[in-house]
Amino acid sequence: MASPAAAVSETTAGQASDTAADVANCFAASFAAAQPDERPYRHWLLENVLPAQTWAEVANLPFPAPDPGEISGSREVHNETRVYFDAENNAAFPVCNRICDALLQPDTIDLVERTTGADLTGCYLRVEYAQDIGHFWLRPHTDLGVKRFTMLLYLADAEGQEELGTDIYADADTWVARPKFKANTALVFKPSNNTWHGFEPRPIPSVRKSIIINYVTDEWRAREQLAYPDRPIRS
Q: Under a CB-based contact definition with an 8 Å cutoff, are residues 18 and 54 in contact?
């Protein structure tokens, strides 16, 4: 059976590519349709985040999936193999640039700020393309600090991945919930001292693809990870 990404690619073959405005409008509609969940902290579960064609393109990006081996617990322990929608990839892959442009459009910024209460003035966009396999897991953490907004966008382009969603905790030791890992859905929250989340150790039957989207402050040191290091929001 063809993967969801392959199936969508077949239906969109020959069509004109989505525009950044299409991506921004789709994200806005997805966010508008979502209701906040206050348990254990305010977060949103979005559906149909990207237009179908853009989702298929990004799910099929040709980045190799690194094997974490036996060492895991945080993404930082494998910094050398992490992939970003940075200057190089935005130039090489139009879909990367399209998504970044959509996330920096003024209407998108206004929507995020109005809905979550985050102040993104002076922030930068950071987008990571994550592919998790093998013994990958993440200890509970909050994203508190230089991250002002977090969206974990699930690509889920293979069967049997439903239980690979992000784990949500009330604190570092108290598990609460796990959204289903479904294609083109996302977990969104404004980082604070109680936004505990992680990934409990469990079998990963096939590569777990997701996009990690953050708006980060000017204190972010790894400037090469940013989509546009010279393009702060409302500078």
A: yes
Q: Cβ atoms within 10 A of the Cβ of 67, count?
A: 13
DSSP string, 90-157: HHH-HHHHHHHHHHTSHHHHHHHHHHH----TT-EEEEEEEEE-TT--EEEE--TTTEEEEEEEE---
* The token pair that represents 144 in the structure block: 């508190």
Eight-class DSSP state of 197: E
DSSP symbol at 79? G
pLDDT band of residue 73 (cuts 50, 70, 90) is low
Q: Are 140 and 125 in contact (CB under 8 A)?
A: no
Give CATH for domain 19-225. 2.60.120.620
Compute the distance between CA of residue 87 and CA of residue 226 in angstroms, rounded to an integer. Answer: 8
Nearest-angstrom CA–CA distance, 60 and 53: 11
Using the Cα atoms of residue 168, residue 172, residue 174 and residue 175 in order, give the sign of their dihedral: positive
The pTM is what? 0.91
Identify residue 182 by its one-letter amino acid code.
K
* CA dist., res. 206 & res. 158, Å (int): 7
H or E, element range at 229? none
Helix axis angle, 52-59 to 94-103, nearest 10°: 130
pLDDT of residue 1 exceeding 50? no
The amino acid that residue 211 corresponds to is I
Torsion sign over Cα 39, 167, 97, 16: negative
So where are the chain's domains?
19-225
Distance CA 203, CA 135 (A): 8
